Amino acid sequence: MSKGRETRERILAIAEESVLAKGFGATSIEEIISEAGLTKSGFFYHFRDKNELARAMLERYVTANDKVFAELFGRGCELSDDPLQAFLIGLKLLAETLADLPNGHPGCLIASVCYQERLFDREVREITARSVNAWNLFFQVRLEEIAQCHPPAEPVDIAHLAQMMSCITDGGIIMSKVLRDPGILPQQVLLFRSYVKLLFAGTPAVRPALLAG
After folding, report:
1. Which domains, from first to last, does the chain contain?
2. pLDDT digits over 38-56, tens only?
């Protein structure tokens, strides 16, 4: 990696840590410059303004998350030809990965942008929307494959079920931070796994016949 590339990555890493800790609004370019040991001209050589920094941070964050999902759920596909079993393996591996983070999940950069979206231009907001839609589609495609082989025990909207994973992840991150319990997020992922397993591998609930009055 070139020196310029290393400097750019260091700036992005410092900025991401600060944003996840206290938000974009409370993160100044000056403190990033100081932490990175740069001059102002050195910083602005890489990033024209805070919006450009935000775009680069989001693209880096999304790429890293996409890689994790691809590796974990790809591993599930390698271990099982059945789409349901492959998906369940992927979720288990994801929960284990989250549980191995020493201080819990550091936070969601996408959520940080949403909370303060007025600070950013349209391109930054569009990156967040595209990334969320892409992650929803990632899970929707897999759940649709599962539904074709294993009809759900109860009627369910697959697109909404896919969105549930994003809601669980961000909600789990928030609750983990508020309660200072890093185990909450992986627990929630495992609960989602149990729900998917029951929905597609279980049998419809048998309702007792109504007795005549």
Report:
1. 1-47 (1.10.10.60), 50-201 (1.10.357.10)
2. 999 999 999 998 889 999 9
